[in-house]
Amino acid sequence: MDRADHGENRPNILLITSDQQHYSTLGVINPRIKTPALDRLAAEGTRFTRAYCPNPVCSPSRSSIITGLYPSVHGCWTIGVKLPEDVPTIGQMLSAAGYATGLIGKAHFQPLASTPESPSLECQPILRDLDFWRGFWGPWYGFAHIELCRNHADESHAGQHYAIWMEENGLTNWREYFRPWPPDPTQQRRQHVWDLPERYHYNCWIAERSMAFIEQAQATGRPFFLWASFPDPHPPYLVPEPWASLYDPAEMEPGAVVPGEHDRNPPHFRKTQEAHPDFSMYRETPFANHGFHSHLRDPERLKKDMAVYYGMVSFMDREIGRILDCLDRLGLAENTLVVFTTDHGHFLGQHGLVAKGAFHYEDLLRLPFLVRWPGRVPAGRTCDALQSLVDLAPTFLAAAGLPVPGAMQGVNQLPVWQGTLEAARDHVIVENRHQPTAVHLRTHIDRRYKITVYRDQPYGELFDLEEDPGEVRNLWDDPAAAPLKLQLLHAFVNAELKREPMRMPRVASA
Question: What is the enclosing helix (H) or strand (E) of 166?
């Protein structure tokens, strides 16, 4: 019988994520960056080169991780939208099976605003109400124990359990290191170097509290499911020394737009290369659309941003190493399934773009993805089998020897991770509905081709990732590619039919 089927030998599951990390920022494939802990995971496990997000913004993608559902089904279809609290989660299922479940770090399942129709705990003034957070440690979204932070770097929405930890460790004036709440538009923003002492950074807090959670779970004799969720390297590009100066901007090589590459792309791509673009046609609500602005950047500033971004990754990597060392120290590494990934990618000048937006290039959709389970997942292996974050929940359930609900849309990747099955899926789908109708697109990616369709629009994208890995030749309107386009659109429609969840099996003729 499979080891996961024995209750006493059920594996621990450790999910470690970053936020908005480009798939190339691993030392094992990029000599410009130092990530010894992640390189260790790659050497001791399998690195998957074709992993994708189900949505290229935070909340929907993170909600898919814990539900095994696409954003169009679980309900959190973009940021600023709450994941309904009645949607079943992997935490609930593992908790019911006897697992100690915890989330340490960034959640982002709820918006930075609260209304009677959609109440949120991840908003001001609750974020800085430390008395509230001293009394609330879960359960929440299926995690029996939570310790949260919402901010990236010095953003004003700092607080929650992270602020409690800073105070308990002597930084009673922590508010001075973060932008004020309410916001002060006259305050000058920090650039690249954060004056916060390194030991009070949330990377250190997440590692310390993750180790404490693991130790507590071991003491109770229960297997654990822990999500250690790091907020970096999401902008702002800001980190304490020595990490802010670890990399020389002169040695950075940001991406760049290829002249003419946007000529055959949808119009919003070209607008990003204007100094003062008009994106008013995309604003159906008063809320800003990520990416719908000028992406023009001073080349030297872009190099500095990239150097700091790399420093943020390396700092996070050091703290990930501490968590991995904790597993070794406690003798838990052999029976712990470790997965490292991120919620979505990031632009560092590629195609003339920065950060993120409705631009479904590989830079934004593809993810770093590492899996380690000694004796179960092959070590030192690289695999190009397609992966999606929506697959994590069903795969974790399978690893724990538990049934996968029919309502989940992800697929069980465990045999692929273990090297006994070549592939569990022949395509991935990426949704992006950042406004009700104006910004609504979906992408279908198979082993060679990528096609993107826009709601109510005649334009789209079609790329041959084998012949054109840089995605600079959009074939959507190419007459020679018309038969291929028809074939891919049919595959896309079929994929939409196949991913419909089936919550209940048919048990009778009527």
Answer: helix 160-168
Q: What are the helix (H) ranges across 373-440? A: 392-399, 414-417
Cβ atoms of 338 and 373 closer than 8 Å? yes
Mean pLDDT calculated for residue range 342-353: 98
Please give the model's pTM, rounded to 2 decimal places. Answer: 0.97
Determine the Cα–Cα distance for residues 337 and 464; give it in Å rounded to an integer: 35
Q: Which two tokens stand for residue 153?
A: 């770097």
CA distance 222 to 219: 8
Cβ atoms 43, 379 nearer than 8 A: yes
DSSP state of 24: T
DSSP annotation string for 276-295: S---GGG-SSSSPPTT-S--
What's the CA gap between 294 and 469, in Å, rounded?
25
Q: How far apart are CA 5 and CA 431, in angstroms?
A: 35
Alpha-carbon distance 420 to 188, whole Å?
A: 55
Closest to 390 in 3D by CA, of 232, 499, 504, 493: 499
Position 3 scores a pLDDT of: 38
Angle between helices 299-329 and 202-220 (to 10 degrees): 20
Band of the pLDDT at 356, cuts 50, 70, 90? very high
In eight-state DSSP terms, residue 200 is: G
Q: What is the mean pLDDT of residues 308-331?
A: 98
Instruction: Output the pLDDT for position 288.
Output: 72
332 and 214 Cβ atoms separated by less than 8 Å: yes
| H helix or E strand, kind and range, residue 363 | helix 362-365
pLDDT at 8: 58
DSSP state of 436: S
Ramachandran angles phi, psi of 286, nearest 5°: -75, -5
Q: Is the CB of residue 375 less than 8 Å from the CB of residue 419? A: no
Please give the structure tokens belonging to residue 136. Answer: 């609330």
Which residues, in sequence order, are CB contacts of 472 under 8 Å at separation 6+?
258, 261, 351
List the 387-388 sheet strands across, edge first. Answer: 366-367, 51-52, 387-388
Beta bridge partners of 387: 51
User: Which residues lie closer than 8 Å to 24 by C-beta, 6 or more apart?
Assistant: 30
**How many C-beta atoms surround the C-beta of residue 101 within 10 A?**
30
DSSP state letters, 460-496 = EEEEETTT-TT-----TT-GGGHHHHHHHHHHHHHHH
Give the helix/strand (H/E) hosting 311. Answer: helix 299-329
Local structure of 347: helix, strand or coil: strand
User: At 210, phi and psi to the nearest 5?
Assistant: -65, -45
